[in-house]
Design brief:
Length: 309
């Protein structure tokens, strides 16, 4: 049981035609649900933390709970910074013991993105930490990310090889039509698999990452709405599309909104059906149970990572 990098994880995933789930964590219940599901399904896993999560829970608390989860479940995992906005943000997590960081320079020009990513890579690799970069801009709103549909842009396959070779980045998040948040589409979901296929031909064997890839379970959304919530129009990425991506060059699929929805559904269910309950262990326990069910479903039916640890 140890913190590991994603290098071996991604190689095995690429060769095996599956992807690793990267689950955003914010509190104890989410950490417990994710790691218990992965231990029981014998799946590799990446726990990832955003800057907003660190502000909410505290880096030291989150790392303490991650260490407790590893000790309790006996699994190895990667601890990853999601959407690091600056060299300083990445450096802080590298120095704190994270095994992986993402530097998101997608807001900058191509040359500025290269310079920033290379700086992080050089510092991280010297410490034995791996780095994820990003090319293209995903639309949507989630934590630090706020990109309008007008500002979003697909990844250009012609830029990928140059970006990777000049930065030395270990994996690359690309934009092919996924979106951050719980309201990803107003019409039919469409992913640009032609872009993914072209990148795979240019960079065979290179690990690709999908952000904004929650599916948004309709039954859980309906439960939230039936229990006083208001999530009309919430729509995610169809699971069959994610499974297709996982069977190709996509080695890491990020999931955050699905966990938030599961937690909210579990809490609202107790608040509505048992209004006399005021013990947090009751409603948070129910939320943890539903999160675990969602994660197990993802491991087996979407990622295909069960039995691969």
């Amino acid at each position: 049981m140890a913190l590991v990098t994603t290098k071996d994880m991604f190689k095995k995933a690429y060769d095996g035609g599956y992807a690793i789930g990267a689950f955003n964590i914010n509190n104890m219940e989410i950490i417990q649900a994710v790691t218990e599901a992965c231990a029981e399904e014998k799946s590799p896993v990446i726990l990832q933390v955003s800057s907003s999560a660190m502000k909410y829970a505290g880096k030291e608390y989150l790392m303490g709970m991650v260490n407790a989860a590893m000790e309790t479940t006996g699994i190895d995992l990667a601890l990853h910074l999601d959407h690091g906005a600056s060299f300083e943000a990445c450096k802080e997590c590298i120095d704190a013991g994270f095994s992986s960081v993402m530097i998101d320079g997608s807001h900058a020009s191509f040359e500025e993105n290269i310079a920033l990513t290379k700086k992080v890579v050089e510092y991280a690799h010297d410490k034995g930490v791996v780095v994820e970069g990003e090319l293209g801009k995903l639309a949507g709103i989630e934590d630090e990310v706020n990109v309008s549909a007008e500002d979003a842009s697909y990844t250009k396959p012609s830029e990928v090889e140059e970006f990777v070779s000049r930065t030395g980045v270990d994996s690359l998040a690309i934009a092919i039509g996924t979106s951050h948040g719980a309201f990803k589409f107003t019409g039919e979901a469409k992913l640009r698999f032609d872009i993914l296929e072209e990148i795979t031909k240019i960079m065979p064997g290179y690990p690709i990452v999908l952000h904004g890839a929650s599916s948004i379970d309709e039954e859980l959304v309906a439960k939230i709405n039936a229990c006083g919530g208001s999530m009309g129009g919430a729509k995610g990425i169809p699971e069959e599309m994610l499974r297709r991506a996982a069977a190709s060059a996509v080695c890491k699929i990020n999931m955050d909104s699905d966990l938030r929805i599961a937690m909210t559904a579990g809490i609202r269910e107790i608040f509505t059906n048992k209004p006399e309950v005021f013990d947090p262990r009751n409603y948070l326990g129910n939320a943890r149970k539903i999160i675990k069910e969602v994660v197990r479903h993802k491991l087996v039916n979407v990622l295909g990572s069960n039995g691969k640890a």
